[in-house]
Queue: 4 jobs
Job 1
Amino acid sequence: MRRSPSIATPLAVIGASLVIAACGTGDSNSGDDGSSGGTSAGTVKGGPGVDVAAKTIRIGDINALTGPASALGKPVAAGHRAFFKALNASGGIDGWKVRLTIKDSGYQPQQHVQIYNAIRNKVALLDSFGSPPTKAIQALLDRDKLVTTPASFDSIWGADPVIAPVGTPYSYDIANALDYYTKQGKDKPKIGIVYQNDEYGQDGLRGYKAAKDKLGFADGGRQTFKAGDTEFTAQIQKLKTAGAKAVVVVALPSSTGPIVGTAAALGFKPQWILQGPAFLEQLITKDGSLNAKPTPVAAALKGALVTSFSAPWGDPGAPGMKELVAAHDKYEPGQPPSIYFALAYASSKVQAAILRKAIGDGDLSREGILKAKQNLGEVDLGGVSPSVTYTPDGGPPSTKSLITRIDPSVDGFLKPVEESYGSDVADGLGTGG
Amino acid sequence: MTEFLQLLFQGVSLGATYALVALGFVVVYRASGVINFAQGAMLLAGAYTISWLATDIGVAFVPAVLASVALLALAGAGFQAGVLRRVAGEPTFVLVMITIGAGIAVTALIEALFGADQRLLGDPWGSSSFHAAGVTITWVKLWGIVVTVAALAAYFAFDRYTRWGLAMQATAEDEEATLSLGVPVARVHLITWALAGSLATLGGLFLAGFPSSPQPTLGDAALRAFPAIVLGGLRSPTGAVVGGLLIGVTEVMTSGYAPSSLGDNFYAVAPYIAMILILLVRPYGLFGRAPAERL
Amino acid sequence: MRRVALPALVVFAVLLPFGLSAAQLTTATFVVIAAIGATGLNVLTGYAGQISLGHAAFVGVGAYTGAVLGSDHGLSAFVWIPAAGVAAALLGALLGPIALRLRGLYLAIVTLGLVFIAQHVFFNAGGLTGGPQGRAFPAVQLGAFDFSPGKVLELGAVTIDSSGLYYFLALILFAAATAFTWNLRRSRAGRAMVALREREAAAAVMGVDVGRVKVTAFVVSSFLAGISGALYGSYLSFAQPDQWSLLMSIQFIAAVIVGGLGTTAGPLLGCAVVFALPSLLKDLPFLPAEGSGGLSAGDLTSITYGLLIVAFLTLEPRGLVGIADRVRRSRGNDTPSKTPKLTVTTPKEAHP
């Protein structure tokens, strides 16, 4: 019979554990919500993500820094950073400084949920990248009453009080673009659509369907694919066989290239209509700058229509652009000019406006910030993006579209053809569903 | 009809690339009984090396390709010598898992080094094409077929007419006996893996051609070549080539003609379904034979 | 030695959650949930020697069964957790006859095909799975116990939060699974499995019903995978079809190998290494800030992961248990090694 080894060690473990056991597991243990709560000398009420004593507010950003949308997510993160660094440098909001917590969910709804659960008690406002991931946390945002500015223009956000979208919804853009396109010619051409098989694609589809009902063009085929897919022979072949003269593309840039490229390789050349995020400067030249080496797919993309959402970089007609470019040059000089940077800058501006109002009302709790957002009214974005309006009734923040055409010879490659196009089709859309 | 021809051309071009990949698998399996799950990673490494040399370093395209083929051949041989040789006696399962682990590590390393965005391949053909009989023929796909045929011819000549080819066949048949005959079996294994690396590079090159591009998901194509080697029988190079062509054509034809009711991306699983059905009837593939077991 | 160590181990496992931070507890919970599935795979690959790359498919089937029965039909967890196991087991039983006809690497490739086909179905059966967008999964509710996030359970002075509840449930199920498979190993069916693993033809000659044994192994393995999947989906609360991928299958195989194929402690040890790795690597000091380019935590995890598999198999194919064995024997304790030799049938083929 072997000698039993000492049981002193297990007993010690047990003893130590019993001491700890008097507390609790996981979340119930720590009050690490970063809030110092309560009122501070009757000035401003605090809440999660707010440090009243240090006058610091924390904003979370669940971004897509890896994965199929990373080329868009990185400029967005840069835009947020630049805006708040500039803001803090000039005194913050009435002396309140803003800090960012940037995390990466890789455009995966699942990761997004995990990260959200980890940071939800530590932030006062949230940025959330992408329609599918934001949709995954929407119920949680509603439950936690956390005001969120998504980097996504889905029309369903307009119906949700805690969400503050910063631009015209995709469905409106597509509806407006199709209205514009069909009014160019005399006949009603066949129009097809190739869209991502998730929430992002759904919104483009809504616009397409509304336009089809109202304008009466023929169906050139509706093809789907998964985000990140790069093989499109099936979809393109079907659109080609159906005889589509124009094709709406609701994709991310990593798929747009293969979509348009496969069509070119198969000898199919429709009028491409790209929903905003489907386009990226790097689709035209190697690094997105004007004089760099053109990509193989640049030729096929020439003349495509793109519904964009911010003024061209450095646009002298947009007063806010000067401040944006200055912040970019000072704080994020490594970031090539990008409409995503501008978008993020604009949405951070909206967040600053919300916070300013909440501070003015003396209430930085979740409820206070929500109330501030709902009663914000119109926010002027200096022409960087069309101004947005938030009211208690909800609805899309704006309904007009910026329609551009791809031109490899201009900086940024997008030449505006319609600055602020609206249509009856779009007006009939409402919010989602 | 032109539609059919167009798809057929795409299918043959894709099939040629799969044939290269499948051959890479078979070469390794024949010599060592290992299915090289790192083939996809080698494919990826090949494409990225060419892209890096041609676009970042500025090397001319053909030298870049040749250099990459040489580099990957070295890498393959190095992996065999440095890792696999140490576990020579272990069951095949262990070796397979090692290749899986190596594949995961290499794929992630490439992504860490180059980022996840699409890159430019640096090939001179780009999207250029010409028309024939109503079919659009892209130069890159045409060259893919030509290079594959040349590579396959070179391999079969090597296999049949050189001493090393004979040595590889002998090692595949019975390693111990071959060793006892004085054949430098260790060197045979090195050559086998070097070959696998070179074939993978060529496969990767054309898989990354227009309208695709070097990107981290290229390695998945190797997984689609599996039905090819199974259909051909794991040990038959001819089978691998035939299987590769079949799978490529099936994949594109399914893309073009499959009804939407079968779901998006049905073409990706069609070869596997076909493979399972065939295996139910012929458990050792179309060209394989059941082993005789001694008790 | 096991007789004294086991109660101590149990106590340690029960008290562990109270000493961990929220993030660490999350990891530990995932490890235990995965260990249930790994225990199943250990039966199939460790005892019966069948290579299966398809484990993720069974886990996914279990998860979606749980979701459909639990969320869409509002049934209780007492129903959907076992049902998940049963649904996955049925799929495993279907695979049995195919496994019958195939050996070694051909079987491996077929199970590879299974993962792809299952994912294809998951991606397209939007009504059940939410399609590429993904869907929410039900939180466990066992009578009065509500495992939803945010809810806590108070037992006198002790508070257990949602993570803790999942941890304990998983622990109980894991213990049951381990007890079952431990018994199985020593039963007639278990011995038949080992005979099958060692030499299939010889086993057949000896009178082992090869077909039945293979099917049994698949059924047990997939049942446990299904249970694991149901808990996994529920704890994750939201998942996309991407989740049940070849990578997940490989993680399970890596876990059983790293732990020690065919051993009792192997599955849990292996899962502890494989599934805790991402969280451990995430906070390394030399990693650049998220998203600022260069090496990402995700890439580093994959690289380490792959290297670990290679290293373990090159240096100690018997996994952690094998290492423990070696350490024990080098200390002079000369009990013969209990770790089975790593045999998995892959017969050499005739030259065509």
Job 2
Amino acid sequence: MIEGELDNLYQDIILDHSKNPRNSGYLEGATHSARENNPLCGDRVSVYLTVHNAEITDLKFEARGCAISVASASMMGQMVKGKSITEAQKLFKQFIELINGSDVGDGFELKELESLSGVKQFPTRIKCATLSWHALQRALESGGIQAKA
Amino acid sequence: MIMTALHKSGFPINDIRSDFPILSEKIYGKPLVYLDNGASAQKPIQVIKAISGVYEARYANVHRGVHYLSQVATDDMEAAREKVRGFINARSEREVIFVRGATEGINLVASSWGRANLTVGDEIILSQMEHHSNIVPWQLIADITGAIIKVIPINDAGELEIEVFQNLLSEKTKMVAITHVSNALGTIVPLEQVIKKSHDAGALVLVDGCQAAPHLQVDVQELDADFYVFSGHKIYGPSGIGVLYGKESLLESMPPYQGGGEMIDTVSFSGSTWADLPFKFEAGTPNIADAIGIGNAIDYVSALGLTSIMEHEEALLSYATEKLKAINSIRIIGNASKKAAIISFVMGDIHPHDIGTILDRQGVAVRTGHHCAQPVMERYDISATVRASFALYNTFEEIDSLASSLSKVKEIFG
């Protein structure tokens, strides 16, 4: 049972994303960015976005964190790229519902993100899974920076 | 559980363990292996019963009532102060101030002593391995007074760079605030040297003794420390209580930290006068029951004797060091020649949080993260470590459990 929960938390797909994160790095020419820290552990993630006509055309992130936080950021990038700001915010809400173990509202197919639902059995790790998402949310709320001339 | 012959004969490990009720708890169905003592130690039944005993039969407010229970509570609390005095060998109980914890003790000194004594360009020296609680209070007072903070670096092993320290000292140095034992690395700081050099330069020394008080014999007179702070909860006592020791002449010269009841002599709207030490620094109704509890914790530790405790913990440390070194991917952070029973380590590129979660599910409680010592993490260019910190009730078998739980980490992360 206990072992099962651990295996469910550290599924192969999560380990794969944490070891080979997609869209990792600094994004030149980003229009939006935000950094989130977890002061409890010192983990941090920066999310960089390029937004054109309210659509997230590119996303990269730099993360220093555990397997859960890196995998979550990696999956987030794949899911969010190409979506509109409104769609990304809906996805954010669905993801938070998934992680908190509440009913996930209608919206997108969560696909690989479903694999992170095991985190709900580990309350001390929820912040790890949501760190990059909060950075995304803040980057979007920041309204973006003036594009360089 | 039958303990092996590794335990030094005469050290009553089985009796000790049965004194700590929480040690028989099961965590996720597995026996608790509690190796997070550096964060907070568990409590023996003697302390637990003493605290409930206060509330059951001996409680009232202190230092004010004429009634019987007020006198009993006052006597018990002052008896605890006397136990603390003896424990650290202060000259007088007037030098023992009860505070919420070491953090409050440091804030008290930084604020009260700092406001009265620091001015623009004065220097405060800290070490690179301080806990945030011995950094931030000094930054706050430096901002107010214009004082400057200098930092003693540590070498790769986690030892203080004494020569650099010597060069940092000058007539501008007013305060050296330094840990006795590093909570993140386990390093035991050569305090005699540090204090001698500081005093030679005309500076005062505040020692953060949180990680030392449970493990080492502390003698504030022999050390010649000007201030020494520690927390009750790390020496098997209650949380929410701690001790600030200060030399009487210094405490006398310092203005009050907080105002209120208990700390006054007379109050009028034309001005107030302060109570004598130690009460000048104990505004408001104190944490009575926990102050008494810290006395019982000291009784517990003293009955075993710090010498036997040190021997036991040193044996645990060397056994654990050997066990962890045998695991290929593990790198121990902090290899000072003199260490308390704390081991910080990293394991390949597996994040300490993931390790902590996997150990937890096997009943093994360790600390993971930066240990409120981010400058230490920066020094070693890491974001976090796993820390196993040992106490008088830990066993060699528990270290075996730690090692075997770490193999589960390898299994998951490959």
Job 3
Amino acid sequence: MKIYVCVKHVPDSAATITVTGENTIDERVTFIINPYDEHALTEARRIRDDFEGSEVIAVCLGKESARECLRSAMAMGADRSILIKSEMRHDAIETAGAIKAAIDEDGGADLIFTGREAIDSNGMQTMFRLGALYGCPVMTNVVETDISQNRARVVSEGDKGARLAYELELPCVLAAGKGLNKPRYPTMPDIIKSKKKEIKTAYIENLNIAPSQASMKLVKLIPYTENRHPENIIGDTEGTVEKIIDVLKNRAKVI
Amino acid sequence: MERSGVLIEQMDGNVKNSVLGVVSYLRSFKASVFAFVICNTPGAFTRELGKWGIDTIVEIRPEDSRDKMNPQLISRMIVQAMHQTGVNHLFGITGAEGRDLLPRIASLLDGSLVMDCTRVDPDEYTAATSNFSGKTEAVIEFSGEFHVFGMRPNYYKPVKADITPRVIEFIPEMEDNTGIRYQGVVESARSGVDLTEADVIISGGRGLKNGENFSLLFECAKELNAAVGASRVAVDEGWVPYTMQVGQTGVKVNPKVYIACGISGSVQHFAGMKTSGIIIAINEDENAPIFKNCDYYVVGDLFEIVEHLTEKLKRMK
């Protein structure tokens, strides 16, 4: 079974984001694998171990620096990886097109994993764009998988924690939710071994990407400014609670 | 944007309040609002939706009711109904259901999609959303023939507008070749108020000390008709299920009031609740970062304060 895991190289959520131009940020911050993609990698590795002769391939569209992300993905269990190199920013439609083209060139997938969203651009759609290009089923916020030779039984989580079961034909695209597993972080030997694994480079301009009439282009980034003026509620418990109730009742009008 | 579609979502038998907020937002553009609803009982939504200014209700009636359980088929039904009614812009909310359906619909239409929007400017072809854990607002320029938007839940409040909607019946043509089979409910939805829909949220973090203590928040929530949330610490410690987590890798919420109990206020937590109307923070630690970024704060014992608050709310009834 050939399992592809799409990973994204994103700024750490704790990093300070400085907007440097109209739509760019200072990238001299710590980058990590998108957290949801870690769940995807962990699951892919587990499935690979159930099927002899299987392979997990991490795929990343990004700059040269995204190699780091693929190294981490391979330390977490991917057998090899593909970097689709591009210095540009791409929307979800182009990203899905590039990933599909790179996977096709690599021989095609039985199973494709993504995270349910990336924590930098929060587009929440690349998995569905991929599914549409393949004409194959997609399930998002997947929290359980049971894979056999030609179908995937999955549980997807919906509103208020409802868990719904679906059966999908393979190939399919599964977007990992937080409840899928506990990410398996690499050990020292994993990291050393990962250095010997292959990163194949593909160049976006050489790929045969399906055209689309639609696009989403980031034109402006505006730093979020906090304009709250914290007021300290001082007093005994009775006074404090009275003040909170006053806020709930007269300012927020929720009681 | 003469005609705008809204994807109607329900919860516990009612149209979600946040969806009605989107309807009111669309009316501010003077758009003619089409509500797309999957419904086998003719007229089931006419009265309720009429109160909020829907011009046209498109009742989509699948011939096989099992199709309603397949998100890819629902998306196809919506797309067919959009084509039938000449609607090129579709709005929904960025909750669990919208996260599943809206991207499917946009992909089927080969249209643009922006999720978690706080603003859409149909003349400029731009939409505002947030990037980088809510640290920046991102303005996205969209192009194409069809456009889909997932609005941030609860960002716009519903405003009443009485009109009598026109009702159109639509029977979709379905052929199930989606490769998806619905197998049933493994676990039903939690009872109580949904975090993304809640007007009031009371959340607990490290300061709660254990899972049992969360019952204190649940009791208070009952009096406030609030939802209970949690910080990542409380979830990672196993005190409460991760579905209650508010933050970057949890649920993003927009209540009128957010009461943070024993939560220090990490950047990641703020990413999930910073657009709340009023933030009230209760923490023992006077240096808690959340105190710099809230509207009201109390340095004190959260157990004492929450218990007293619950008692007082009970007596007020």
Job 4
Amino acid sequence: MRRPTQIERLYLDFDGFFASVEQQARPRLRGRPVGVVPFEGAEHTCVIACSREAKLRGVRNVMSIADARHLCPDIVLVAQSPDLYRRAHNALISEITAVIPVDAVKSIDEMTCTVAADDRDAPQALGNRIKARIADTIGPYITCSIGFAANRQLAKMACKAGKPNGNMVWRPEDMPGPLLTLALADIPGIGDSMERRLIDAGITSMAALLATQPKQLRALWGNVTGERLWYALHGYDVQAPPSGRGMYGHGRVLPPGHRSPEQAQVASRLLLTKAARRMRREGWNAGQLRLWLDLSSAGAWSRSRWLPAVHDDQAVLAGLDHLWREALPALPRGVRIMRVGVTLFDLTRASARQLDMLVNDEVARRRWEKATEAVDALNSKYGRTLVSVGPWTPPPGGYAGGKISYTRIPSAEDFW
Amino acid sequence: MNWKTDLKLADLEPATRIEATCKRCGMSHYQTQAALMARPVLAQTYLDEVERALRCTNRFCRGPVRIALVHDGKTEGFVGGMA
């Protein structure tokens, strides 16, 4: 494995992304402590992101609203605007690409690039160019931290070490010095349970971790990730392997007045239709469908159903109706459903549908696929859900199917 | 100056999707680079000129649009927490 002798990777992470985008877009929020909450009027949930001003007052991401108010009584709570964050993300990537090509987008506010040979001697100048470009073309309220190192993992750690608004360079010849000041939990990939496992094995510090052997970490992790991490921490050119698409799904916490099984069923139809649309856009068929229900104190219910490798709305919704027919008699009387989710998985390429000799559905499938194509074309033409298979009742709170997760940045179509 | 003034339509891959969102009514629609290149007047234009040439597809609006590139293909997950 190659061990770079120069800076080769850049990792960029925006500071308090959701809150800083809100401050850039809404001048009244600038300079004030801002907390982004899941929906308007939320009181019994948490602050999903907060501004630098709020962080200086002790507020942290994923802190309960009550605790945030206690620490910072004048905090301004704003409901999340996923579509705004999505548009900001697209504009920021385009601006960064004008300075340096982006290799991979790791989440809505993180990305990584390969540093060109000409920039390797003076990476901070490259970082300054990126920051100046963002300030000039997008605005000064969205800032980012940039880390430079021999590989992505070290660049990410350098980026985090330089937060906020950092421009941190960890040159290969200076390693492992900067690492030795960090705790085990500062390494991306080491969570609470892995840290406990390392401590149980007598590895209590970064120096002790670096003194291990690659196979020792592989054994501790129980898979190749431990070995990969060892090589990454020692400056080798190693990174996460590309991961394939395994499923399409959506989940939703239902508002307090919409937690009956019937209301959850309506919400699940909409979520499944949106998941199926995404799956079709990317050219996949699903072989299985799962419905899961969070019943709060009554536990949970989930069941999967086989599908004959399909992607049209009629087929997936018929599968969902079957699952609900199983669910309704099995649910406790008077149950309240806190959260509902649907997942399409067991994916195969739509261009290579394998016919099932026990299901003679090819003619019907082709008809429904054509009908679904026509529905998608109409919705695309009018930029909203104009036609749907069955009722279309968006749940209160909006943004159903537009959730932002690590590996998924929604598109405008997800909000239709 | 921004990315739209730096980039020509012809520099994009034919399959690149361009999102156009109406500044007036908020409606979004998508076009591929290949579809836009088929219009002779756009073939040699920069993206800011493309943006000015496009209009909202809602026939009752026809407002000016804001364009964005869709970067779907670049998303990569963390594997075991590794970047």
